[in-house]
Write a structure and sequence with these properties.
The complex is a heterodimer of chains A (about 290) and B (about 240).
Chain A: H1 3-31, H2 41-59, H3 63-90, H4 94-116, E1 131-134, E2 137-140, H5 141-163, H6 165-175, H7 177-182, H8 187-209, H9 219-234, H10 239-260, H11 262-279
Antiparallel strand pairs in A: 1-2
Helix pairs in contact in A: 1-5, 1-8, 1-9, 1-10, 2-3, 2-4, 2-8, 2-9, 3-4, 3-8, 5-6, 6-8, 9-10, 9-11, 10-11
Chain B: E1 2-11, E2 14-24, E3 29-33, H1 40-47, E4 55-60, E5 63-64, H2 70-76, E6 78-81, H3 93-100, H4 110-120, H5 122-126, H6 137-150, E7 155-159, H7 167-182, E8 186-191, H8 194-200, E9 203-208, E10 211-217, H9 218-223, H10 225-232
Parallel strand pairs in B: 3-8, 3-9, 6-7, 7-8
Antiparallel strand pairs in B: 1-2, 1-4, 4-5, 9-10
Helix pairs in contact in B: 3-6, 4-6
The chains are: A mainly alpha (about 290), B alpha/beta (about 240).
Chain lengths: ~290, ~240
Amino acid sequence: MSLDVLLQATVQGLQMGAIYALIALSLTLIFSVGGLLNFAHGDFLALAMYGAFALYQAFHMDAYWAAPLLFFVFFALGMLLFRRLVQPVLEAGVLAGAQLTLGLVFVQESALLAVFGGDYLTVPTVLSNKNLVLPPLVMPWTLLVGAALAAVLSVTLYGVLMRTDFGRQVRAITQNRDAAALMGIRIQRVQAIAFGVGIGLLGLTGPVVVAQFTLSPTMGLDLTLVALIVMVIGGIGNFLGSMVGGLIIGVAESVGSLLYGGTVGAMIPYAILVFVLLFRPHGLLGEH
Amino acid sequence: MLEVSGLVAGYGRITILREVELSVAEGELVALVGVNGSGKTTLMKTIAGLIAPGAGQVRFEAAELAGRGAERAVQAGIVLVPEGRMVFPRMSVWENLMLGGVHPRPRPGRAESLERVFDLFPRLAERRDQKAATMSGGEQQMLAIGRGLMAKPKLLILDEPSLGLSPLMVQETYAALRRLNREGLTILLAEQNVKLSLAVSTRGYVIENGRIVLKGASEALARDPATRQAYLGHL
């Protein structure tokens, strides 16, 4: 095992990690909306990837052009879903909200199966099969661009949440809903926008990272699991933790697969989850 | 300024307030006193729009606010500093204060409001970047009041501001309230601490089992045998 190979795996892991970080960050954003666990998170991401596939099939639109379009479509979809489904159901409690998102999993997976069939699909992009060679590193452009965009979006979203009035309102609602209402914050409007942004980011992320995935109707579950693990490792509800957790899981998965093979490598995120929960039950950056 | 009439409110099917009548004129400092569970907090929350009343009116200046929500109350100029302070624990003093003035009505003047709050509570300026949860109860109470002031209230309502504070902190908090009132702010104060709240206020109401049972000038209330017997007897 040469050091070069290890370096390659680490860099590739960091790139996947940036993508995981963004997915987990949007999951955390949605969680901050009244404690809703979005079990359909990965399925929305899958839906966005299929959206990129459909746009390519129909109009030969490249995934990178589809991304901004799908952001707005998913943002609107998220706002609509929140107003019509999530908000009324959340009033019945967090558990009802979890059941709702579990239901959305089946709706989306069945819809994808009905429309696109069960075959594995891939979406070519302008960057497919092109590599950036920086000896000793060889990096696929699709991964590099996907990771760079994910990193920029993560940092931007984090900045918005920590440094703007909108972000402070989102956090205020999470920390004390009644107090937030007393400040005159329009709770449901802020929550709808936060939910819309969370889903919208998935619409943007899907096409950008579609080249890294083989599409199948049930792929969403794996993505949800990774996002959940990342969120729990980082500390549920902690935005910075989600970003750190994403990088950790990305590198661990990549280096682990290199050292121990794919089967063991795939187990490593779960092992890390158990390990973190044993020693820091609230996650790496979680507060009690 | 504030005119509450025939107010009936509670939680779900439990009625707590029964036909409450209460008014506050501009520039007044009015105390609402009563023992724990008498309905003070419910009344404050209903006026501030957190609870929609079953019946009755909450008229503020020209607007009817009953059942219109907390956002509408803040828009009109009613700001509640809630019982238990309810500062945002994982945010800094500065962030808490910014949120206090986040509503579109007070937002344009946040910089001046912030200066005013720091002038009233210099300790908040010193602790600007400290997380609210790590501060003492008295400091959190200052922060809660400061946060309320950031919303540029016409009527500031405080629910049990002395609760759980050291005697020294209670003195400091009440000195701040007196100063704010002297500078022209209208204040409605709900307190279990009858002696203290009647000492700073001009008028008072006594609430018992969700009804106003006594009202009048604070001085007279403090001397009233009924009040004395019920609340001040042991003092």
